[in-house]
Design a protein that fits this description.
Shape of chain A: elongated
Number of helices of chain A: 7
Structural class of chain A: mainly alpha
Number of strands of chain A: 0
Shape of chain B: elongated
Order of helices and strands of chain A: HHHHHHH
Radius of gyration of chain B: 18 Å
Oligomer: heterodimer
Radius of gyration of chain A: 19 Å
Strand content of chain A: under 5%
Largest interface: A-B, 28 and 25 residues
Number of strands of chain B: 0
Largest sheet of chain A: none
Distance between the termini of chain A: 18 Å
Helix content of chain B: over 70%
Order of helices and strands of chain B: HHHHHHH
Number of helices of chain B: 7
Structural class of chain B: mainly alpha
Strand content of chain B: under 5%
Largest sheet of chain B: none
Chain lengths: ~170, ~160
């Protein structure tokens, strides 16, 4: 059922001018991947600095709320750039990623990692500028960092895992 | 010994053979390399954007650099080790790839730019509107974007 819908989507996407454009020039895919990696860099360093601050590992003198003010927005912008370049990369080869379980695991992990990171915002708005993180908050910070790392690892392995049996080629 | 000889000898080492034979070693090291290099580029970009006056203008630049540089160095260490292992897994192809050689050259230039900044530019951080830190930041940002691009192009031209 799901594969039927996805196969229909892949066939439709593959017939659009977008696929013709992305697949039609040698340099577009590596250029998109370069932008994708640069956006990963922006997101990863932002969430690292946020969550290390929540853990109290770095920048002890600055309030957590200030760190969130500075790095949550780049995280959001970065994820948006990742979504756009990721979609264009899928358009370039519609049968590649979406028929692999690991791709959907990656999408789920992004939602989890993003939600966990964003959950610091209301938590520290309540606690106030000088408040330090509770043990539960620190656990969330560790989980968020692990989830972001898992997103990257999953992304790299998509290229190596098998597609579902019977998936279009 | 030429680069070709070196690459050939390296490819016959037991480490190279083990890396090539393993199904999971290469993607696992690649994953670690991606995490390390994105932290290097991301942390350097934070500093570059501050030097260019495009972000975090309310923060003292020297303090920002001091707080972020440990992340950069640790990540760079990991990127260097994982990158070297990827090279050892396939030394003949990489050493014959022009984008790989360009990437190494750009890394050298980025290092030189960083050294020049610490000798000349960093002294001018307190001066409002000083040019040297801006030039360092712009050069660094451009070089690291080019390094990522060269790295990505290697994968398509091996």
């Amino acid at each position: 059922m799901i594969m039927h819908i996805l196969a229909g989507f892949a066939a439709w996407l593959g017939g659009t001018p977008l696929t013709a454009l992305v697949a039609g020039h040698f340099w577009i895919v590596p250029a998109l991947q370069t932008i994708h990696i640069l956006a990963v860099a922006g997101v990863l360093v932002s969430v690292l600095l946020i969550n290390l601050r929540v853990l109290g590992v770095i920048g002890g003198t600055e309030p957590v709320a200030g760190v969130l003010d500075r790095y949550l927005r780049p995280t959001g912008v970065g994820v948006l750039v990742l979504a756009v370049t990721g979609f264009l990369l899928i358009a370039g080869e519609p049968t590649r990623a979406i028929f692999r379980t690991l791709f959907w695991a990656k999408m789920l992990l992004i939602v989890i990692a993003f939600t966990l990171t964003w959950s610091h915002r209301p938590a520290f708005a309540v606690v106030g500028a000088g408040g330090s993180a509770t043990a539960a908050r620190k656990a969330i910070a560790v989980a968020a960092l692990l989830a972001w790392v898992a997103v990257i690892v999953a992304g790299r392995w998509i290229a190596y895992v098998e597609a579902w049996p019977g998936a279009p080629e | 010994m030429s680069l070709e000889d070196f690459a050939f000898r390296l490819s016959e080492t037991s480490l190279s053979i083990a890396l090539t034979d393993s199904e999971w070693a290469f993607p696992a090291i690649e994953s670690a390399h991606v995490i390390a290099l994105t932290l290097v580029v991301g942390s350097i970009a934070v500093v570059d954007l501050r030097l260019l006056g495009l972000a975090a203008r309310d923060r003292d630049a020297s303090q920002l650099i001091a707080s972020i540089l440990p992340v950069t160095w640790v990540a760079f260490g990991f990127a260097l080790v994982t990158g070297s292992l990827l090279f050892v897994a396939n030394p003949i192809s990489y050493s014959a790839n022009s984008f790989f050689l360009v990437k190494l050259g750009l890394l050298g230039l980025a290092g030189l730019n960083m050294a020049l900044f610490h000798v000349f530019g960093s002294k001018q951080l307190k001066r409002e509107g000083a040019l040297a830190p801006r030039i360092s930041g712009a050069a660094s940002l451009s070089l690291w974007i080019a390094i990522v691009a060269a790295g990505r192009w290697i994968g398509f031209t091996l």
